[in-house]
Amino acid sequence: MTHSGDVVSHSLDLAEEGCSATEIGRMLRLPRATVRDWLHGRAPRRGAPYPGLLGCAQCGGAHDFEGLPPAYVQLLGLYLGDGCLSAHPRGVFKLRISLDACYPGVMEECEDAMREVMPRSRLNRVSYCTWFELYSYSKSWPCLFPQHGPGKKHDRPIRLTAWQWRLVSKRPDRLLRGLLHSDGCRFRNTGRGGWSHPRYSFDNKSLDIRVIFCAACELLGLHWTTSANRTIYVSRKDDVALLDLFVGPKR
Ligand SMILES: [Zn+2]
Predict the structure, then answer these.
(1) Superfamily of domain 70-156, CATH level 4
(2) Distance 132 CA to ligand 1 centre (A)
(3) Ligand 1 centroid vs 236 CA: distance in angstroms?
(4) Is the pTM for the entire model greater than 0.70?
(5) What spacing in Å lies between the alpha carbon of 136 and ligand 1's midpoint?
(6) Residue 228: pLDDT band with limits 50, 70, 90
(7) How do residues 7-50 score in pLDDT, each as one tens digit?
(8) Which residues make up the environment of ion ligand 1, defined by Cβ < 5 Å?
């Protein structure tokens, strides 16, 4: 059975206000299991049109941006780091994410995220010598990544939309994981006297993307510093320990 997007988003609103799946089911006359599915992010969404929700003017699909899973936030980080969209015939777009072949774990996670965000699209992988490219086609990619535009990301403004910020503010850890998996690393900083501390760095040509990285750090209370060039560091012991909980070294 399908339900209108209004009912889905109303259920999510009620859940945010603290209602349980049972209470929401009772109020909206819905099976509890259905509501529970929605609350766990299994709402009909992402291009799966359902009655009651107007089709997207751009792709014709129906979007529930606010209901996108945390995997979307990580994919957003990967997209901002090393992803791009290109237009193909009949309004179809190709999302490409380039990943270092040294880190098969990062690649697997990226594949999982792409599948979860766009389950109807076939995922493809092409291997080059030292790197991989993951790609999939959908008319909806530019709706999910409205940062798409002509030219390189560092040559144009990159701003997140309000709904993207809402998702990021719920899961800044996933954004940082995606950003650090693409354009960051954890390394050992050493100095005179033999001291040595782990440290994270993030490096992206786009000032806007660096600002997004720093904003996500601040959401988690992580202190960041910047060097004379375009690298951002997270170096304090407690902050590195926190990042280790949800990023860690790339695998
Ligand atoms: Zn759309």
Answers:
(1) Homing endonucleases (3.10.28.10)
(2) 27
(3) 41
(4) yes
(5) 16
(6) confident
(7) 777 777 777 777 788 887 877 777 787 778 777 766 554 444 44
(8) 56, 58-59, 61, 140, 143
